[in-house]
Amino acid sequence: MTTPYEEIVQSLRQAFPKPVSDRMHDAYFVFSFMRALDRVDAMKSASPILGEPEDPDFDAARLARMADDPQTLEEVSAQLVDRLLGMFIWGHPRSQINVVPSPTIPSIIGGMLPSIYNPNLCSDESSRGVAATEIEATAMTADLVGYDAASAGGVFTFGGTGTLMYATRIGLEKACPNTGETGLREPAVIVCSDQAHYACRTIAAWMGLGEQNVIAVPTTDENEIRPCLLESFLRDVLKEGRRIACIVATMGTTDAFGLDDLQAIREIRDTLVDEFDLDYVPHLHADAVIGWAWSVFNDYDFEENPLGFQHRTVRSLAGTARRIQHLSLADSIGVDFHKTGFTPYVSSLFIAKDAADLSRIARADESMPYLFQSGHYHPGKFTLETTRSGSGPMAALANLLLFGRQGLQALLGHLVTMAEVLREHLEGHSATHVLNGANFGPVTLFRVYPDGVDTFSVPNREMNDIGYRDQLLAHNDYNRRIFEIINREALKGRGVVISLTDCYRETSYGEPVVGLKSYIMSPFSEEKYVDYVLDSIAQARDEEREAK
Ligand SMILES: *Cc1c(COP(=O)(O)O)cnc(C)c1O
Predict the structure, then answer these.
(1) Which of 225, 254, 259 best tests ligand 1's pocket when mutated (most atoms within 8 Å of CB)?
(2) Residue 430 CB: number of other CB atoms within 10 A?
(3) pTM score above 0.85
(4) The CATH fold of domain 126-367
(5) What is the rounded average pLDDT of the residues 144-162?
(6) For 80-112, how does the pLDDT look when each residue is reduced to its tens digit (9 = 90+)?
(7) Ligand 1 mutation target, pool 260, 339, 443, most atoms within 8 A of CB
(8) Could you tell me if 350 and 161 are in contact, meaning their C-beta atoms sit under 8 angstroms apart?
């Protein structure tokens, strides 16, 4: 005689993977996943989204309640798949929206295996080989960016934002020792550029430093921090007796792919340490969550060009390498595999040049230094998170193995080649102007102008001449309208989905410059899709003209 509860448990067991070998049940597991994928496949079309571009029903979502009765695996998975309706397919060559990659199949498998077995990276007891994977992926990446992998150490965390948090937490312990214990008792600042990611402000707020203590140093037209201004800002901070929790060099800005001059920043830091006779060395962090991947070109022979890239591509890659090759001058580096490493979310790595820096933020000090020395691995003693998923390191390792240096060189080289083709066309056209011409990544920011605007002189005047303010604002609106037309058509499967940035930079007189943005991340990009962007612009301009 089975009770009702026993019956329920019996049927729910079907929905768990079998703990002992059971090929039939494995087949059911895999088949369930295949059916889900089949259902996703049915949503695909020529357009770069799944299904139709519908707005989600948020009102219905708020009314959702947990039911009394269980549902079957089949019923649940069908409903889950439907939640993907309207999603952009980032890996579609008609999708050039943002720095969102399409994950590779090995990285998806790497991300999924831990989903089945739940290794917890808190310690090696609960994650075994997956703990070693974290060390392995860290060592490979540390070596790639130019650190000595034997003395570097790192942990995967909850995003690029998390990597900045680790850097600043370590930097705070250097600048204001024992803050972890006592709390902050003197003002401390984060210094970054005005093009740095807003995550610097986020962590300042969350860590109790305060957003007011984030000092944003102005940038050049190339979106790079101005070293001389950095120096004078730092000098002011030190003269006022404030402490420096972290200096953040942005190595690949989010919108424009600007790269700070890390060499100059490091020199300034070192000079000021001597000059002010500081009792600490301000922590220097490279926010390279986007730019790190270009480290694969550190040993590329641009003269020989063995992979056969075009001239423009070689120039672009070399332009990036000239900054990225100095990454190892930073005390720590943030890496997002889920941006330019083609893994699923979330896979972010914080690397400290000196693993001992990590013990500065450990919770209990009796057991230090324990890292890599006792033969046990207990990152949970210093990580912000307690439970940490193995998916990040497993996905990262998958792609490090899959690509090798050459694979990533070829892939990034291809994306940059496509971006260069786009730039060449935009530069050659009288109605378009490339905004970030001096930044050499897969992202192109540009402005479109109506007939009769002299695009040789107007963009510059808009930027620097307050007499052009009205024109600037009118052209901002014009670009917004062009953007709307292009995206409306793209969602119907015509042309390419791009994005809009409300403020590429501020003009010298403080107004935002609106720009259109093409971020080419799809490995399936081809020149014809670049041509679609140009066709879309031409058609949008026609429609706009007729609407007048
Ligand atoms: C995206 C980004 C971040 C934030 O990273 P998340 O992974 O989104 O938390 C930080 N810095 C830069 C330069 C970025 O582009």
Answers:
(1) 254
(2) 12
(3) yes
(4) Aspartate Aminotransferase; domain 2 (3.40.640)
(5) 98
(6) 999 999 999 999 999 999 999 999 999 999 999
(7) 339
(8) no
